[in-house]
């Protein structure tokens, strides 16, 4: 807070409230509009991969209803296994968008499901900005809250997951995360059961929306434990935490995808342990309050001596039960992603399917500057401001910042969790800095509050005024004697004023100390020139932040992955729409029941846009099934054909960027297919695809690499398509090793305009058998007798 105190009139306070509401409204409009660049530059389209599954589920929900949604078995994914959608999806996003669509239709607003899905994230980004305002206001006041709300409305880290079309769980989960933290801090400050009940409901919404709810149920217990260890236990802390654990756990167990995991997995054990510690601490404080110090020491001694054995037995029993439950799980009760956060090397060692996802990789230092920009330099100042003075709410903000920095350093996806904490602390820092600088300018014009020492006469006058005011409170007859009747005699005795005199004396001492503090304290006043320069520099710093955020929203995070573009030398923009071209071909030129195989990255898009059955998709719940596809891509053409035939696959497509320079193609992902396939099928070995530990596709590539199905499907007829005929790969920047070859078991049926998607059809077995017979000579065919002909058997038939 700024130095100095002044009385604020009711009219001025009302004007400030109206101004704050107006600013919040403008911040909400800013948060919504800055995320519309993707619609303005391209079109209203769903982005990325996971949003297409969410869009497909929302379509089913709006058409079939909530009960059909909970019982939906999707037979178009993970063939031939299928997937129970209602029990394996976080329903918060789908139910939210479906509710918005139902409300719009009830109000006769003609919105399609796709339109609602596209604009869900921008709408909730405005809600998140408002929730950030209320959270920061509870920590450091209105000014800091408005600043933090303006920062999070534009921060690139949050924009990357909330642009129009980014219909993913994080679109609503970040709002639920901030809302849960706000209601927790609000309960800490007020001790209200009403707010803690709302907090449990907000936590329930977070559980429904995103698997990152485990961050909440671990961060809040850490803060409660910190308060207990630092001697800050209070009834408000108990009310803020105990009902949240009970109600929150019960509500979380109602979500089908969570179920009994809310009480059985290690991610939730910390909350229960702190719950027990909180009750033990509350019991100790209660006993200490009702007993005298001597009795309390005796009781404590008795508990430590006699009750030690019982406590040990109970503790050992509890620990044994927990150890048995945890030991029953191969991962000791932790999920693979959680273990990757605790041990960054775990995924690369044991679960390559998690390590293969780009958003699960650790971030680089430039990515911090890209995603939070100048906030990284303001965070330390915000932490310092939280310690002056330190409160329960400000300590929570610091703990939130520290933990989110660690997790964002492990997984780049969790930069999204860091963004609200960075905006809160940066908002506090900027608010404190502006407050100090503006008050410094204001104090230059007030001579009585200058840096000159205050005279002793003024100090004495202030103290005498305090003394006279307290004397006026004392009744006039307070020093008179009171008559007491004892029998027939009247005895005069002084009035007993010990209690009232003691209270007035204490209040007088407090008031005098407050006066001395107000008189002697010199507010932090900077020179006028320095204050003006500081304000100008802060304005410039904010301007650079706004420019960077607008650029990131318009250029870096607005392009949908399904529609690509590049700028030509003459300044024109060339659009690559190969993905939708390929999915449209599959939808209109294949049978409805045909099965399509590809790497798991494109499963959701294939199901949603081509409406065809896929073998694997982005849910990645069955590692063996994904490893089977990886083995097929890594195997020679004949063995791969057999694998796909066993899965009833009719079409296979690969993503290839060697012609146009698209780096996120399947050749660059191929080593992950080898690693995932080799993790289940030992005959697939990564060294067989490397030459001197280098991944190559040129003439020095290994025969295993050159004969793999991925290589053959990607580079089939590639040399003919290049201008020089040498097969120069623009992504790997080298000529391919094997240029001219034919396919015996697959036939090319469609290649998109820029060769980014190549679709192949499996040849039927009889065509291959006829080709084999043609290679036999007439002499050999005459020698074949009737008996050997009958013994011939198709090796690929079931």
The oligomeric status of these chains comes to: single chain
Class derived from helix and strand content: alpha+beta
How many β-strand runs? 13
Provide mean pLDDT, rounded.
83
What is the rounded distance between the termini? 78 Å
Radius of gyration of CA atoms, rounded to a whole number: 35 Å
- What is the overall shape? globular
Overall description:
The radius of gyration is 35 Å and the shape is globular. The termini are far apart. The chain has 798 residues and is α+β, with helices and mostly antiparallel strands. Helix content is 62%, strand content 6%. Strand 1 (73-74) and strand 2 form a beta hairpin. The longest helix is centred in the middle third of the chain and has 35 residues, at 293-327. Helix 22 (415-443) packs antiparallel against helix 25. The strands form five sheets. A five-stranded mixed β-sheet has the order 8-7-9-13-12, sandwiched between helices. The chain has 36 helices and 13 strands.
């Amino acid at each position: 807070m700024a130095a100095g105190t002044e009385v604020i009139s009711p009219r001025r306070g009302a004007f400030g409230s109206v101004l704050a509401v107006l600013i919040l409204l403008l911040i909400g409009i800013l948060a919504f509009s800055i995320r519309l660049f993707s619609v303005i530059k391209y079109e209203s389209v769903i982005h990325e991969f996971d949003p297409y599954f969410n869009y497909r589920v929302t379509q089913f929900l709006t058409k079939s209803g909530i009960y059909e949604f909970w019982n939906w078995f999707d037979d178009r994914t993970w063939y031939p296994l299928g997937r129970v959608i209602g029990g394996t999806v976080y329903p918060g996003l789908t139910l939210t968008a479906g509710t918005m669509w139902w409300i719009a239709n009830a109000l006769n607003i003609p919105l399609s499901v796709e339109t609602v899905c596209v604009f869900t994230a921008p709408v909730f980004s405005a809600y998140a900005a408002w929730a950030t305002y209320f959270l920061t206001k509870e920590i450091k006041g209105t000014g800091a809250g408005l600043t933090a709300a303006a920062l999070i409305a534009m921060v690139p880290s949050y924009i990357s997951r909330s642009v129009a079309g980014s219909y993913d769980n994080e679109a609503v989960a970040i709002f639920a995360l901030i809302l849960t933290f706000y209601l927790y801090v609000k309960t800490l400050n007020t001790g209200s059961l009403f707010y803690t009940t709302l907090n449990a409901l907000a936590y329930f919404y977070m559980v429904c929306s995103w698997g990152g709810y485990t961050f909440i149920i671990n961060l809040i217990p850490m803060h409660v434990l910190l308060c207990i260890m630092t001697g800050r236990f209070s009834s408000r802390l108990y009310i803020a935490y105990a009902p949240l654990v009970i109600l929150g756990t019960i509500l979380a167990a109602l979500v089908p995808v969570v179920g009994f995991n809310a009480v059985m997995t290690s991610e939730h054990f910390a909350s229960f342990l702190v719950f027990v510690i909180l009750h033990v601490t509350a019991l100790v404080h209660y006993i200490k309050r009702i007993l005298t110090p001597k009795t309390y020491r005796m009781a404590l001694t008795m508990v430590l001596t006699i009750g030690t054995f019982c406590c040990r037995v109970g503790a050992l029993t509890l620990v044994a039960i927990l150890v048995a439950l945890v030991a029953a799980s191969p991962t000791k009760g932790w999920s693979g992603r959680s273990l990757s956060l605790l041990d960054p090397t775990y995924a690369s060692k044991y679960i390559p399917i998690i390590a293969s996802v780009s958003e699960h990789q650790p971030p680089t230092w430039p990515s911090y500057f890209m995603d939070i920009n100048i906030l990284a330099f303001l965070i330390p100042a915000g932490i310092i401001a939280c310690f002056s003075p330190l409160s329960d709410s400000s300590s929570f903000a610091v703990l939130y910042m520290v933990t989110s920095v660690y997790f964002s350093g492990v997984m780049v996806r969790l930069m999204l969790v860091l963004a609200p904490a960075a905006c809160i602390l940066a908002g506090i820092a900027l608010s404190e800095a502006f407050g100090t600088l503006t008050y410094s300018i204001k104090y230059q014009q007030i001579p009585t509050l200058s840096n000159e020492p205050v005279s002793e006469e003024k100090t004495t006058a202030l103290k005498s005024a305090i003394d006279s005011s307290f004397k006026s409170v004392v009744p006039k007859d307070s020093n008179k004697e009171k008559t007491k009747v004892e029998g027939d005699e009247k005895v005069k005795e002084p009035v007993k004023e010990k209690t009232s005199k003691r209270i007035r004396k204490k209040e007088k001492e407090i008031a005098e100390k407050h006066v001395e503090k107000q008189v002697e304290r010199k507010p932090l006043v900077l020179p006028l020139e320095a204050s003006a320069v500081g304000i100008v520099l802060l304005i410039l710093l904010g301007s650079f932040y706004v420019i960077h955020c607008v650029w990131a929203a318009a250029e870096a995070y607005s392009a949908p992955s399904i529609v690509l573009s590049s700028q030509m030398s003459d300044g024109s923009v060339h659009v690559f729409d190969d993905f939708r071209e390929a999915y449209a071909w599959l939808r209109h030129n294949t049978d409805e029941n045909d099965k399509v195989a590809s790497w798991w990255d494109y499963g959701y898009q294939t199901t949603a846009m081509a409406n065809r059955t896929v073998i694997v998709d982005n849910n990645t719940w069955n590692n063996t099934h994904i490893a089977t596809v990886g083995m097929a891509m890594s195997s020679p053409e004949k063995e791969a054909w057999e694998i796909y035939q066993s899965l009833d696959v009719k079409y296979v497509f690969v993503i290839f960027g060697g012609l146009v320079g698209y780096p996120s193609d399947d050749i660059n992902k191929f080593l992950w297919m080898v690693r995932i396939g080799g993790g289940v099928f030992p005959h697939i070995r990564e060294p067989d695809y490397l030459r001197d530990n280098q991944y190559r596709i040129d003439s020095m590539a290994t025969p295993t690499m050159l004969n793999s199905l991925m290589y053959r499907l990607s580079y089939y007829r590639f040399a003919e398509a290049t201008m020089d005929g040498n097969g120069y790969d623009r992504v790997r920047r080298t000529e391919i090793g094997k240029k001219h070859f034919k396919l015996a078991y697959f036939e090319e049926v469609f290649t998109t305009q820029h060769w980014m998607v190549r679709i192949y059809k499996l040849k039927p077995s009889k065509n291959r058998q006829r080709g084999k017979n043609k290679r036999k000579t007439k002499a050999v065919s005459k020698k074949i007798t009737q008996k050997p002909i009958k013994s011939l058997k198709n090796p690929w038939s079931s």
